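Researcher: Here's a chain I'd like modeled. Treat it as a single chain, no partners, no ligands.
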Amino acid sequence: MSSTPNRRGLSFRRWLALSIAGFVAFFAVWWLIAASGLVQRQFLPTPLEVLERFVALTQTPFVGYTLQQHLASSFGRFAMGFGLAALVGIPLGLLMGWFRWLDAIVSPLFDALRFVAPIAWVPFAALWFGTGIGGPVLIIFSGAFPPCVINAYRGAKYIEPRFVEAAQTLGATHLRMITEVLLPASVPSIVAGLRISAGLGWQSLVGAELIVASSGIGYLLVKGQANISTSIVMSGMIAIGIVGFAIDALLRGFEAHIHARRGGI
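Model: Modeled as a single isolated chain. Structure tokens:
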């Protein structure tokens, strides 16, 4: 691996060493506090105890499912909500950025609704869907939808005029302008929006499952708390972090690929 300095002015090896040191320091402080007896072990288990419980949850069902089954249930809801947000939000954002009349119609309502926190939709979702899959999907959609719209809108709004002028000079139809000029030029902004959208959608999912679900990682956290088992709660939190990091890393890699294809840095 190259040790070329990155944008922060650190070589990769130094960055990696500092990252590892940060993790080691965090777990060392955690272990010292847990082992000191300052906090009851029931409320702050050691890292080893949490690791043991994490492994046990992957092998022994808790509230009906193993940890991976809870994660699979959560990810299915996330995929539906995030996919719906992208399917609706990206075309809407592009069209709002391209057609001023549509922007004038949609923007006031969108600007009002996007400031409603996803968790605020929980009572509404519970009334409409109960503990069915529709509630979590609605809440995930409410968190993931705004970044899809906003970034697609920016991509369309700030497209370089020379591209539009060149297409108009060549006699491109309105449909070809959208599919061959607008959409390709907006891809980097759209992908950046998807990364933000995925993070907010995954966070919204966990909040939804704390209240309106009968399975999933959020439901596991609730039942762990009900059983006064901090190790179960922390295991669930670790699983949430791992999956969230994996989703972000996948989209970050896709974003880097898009920039590389377009000659970005």
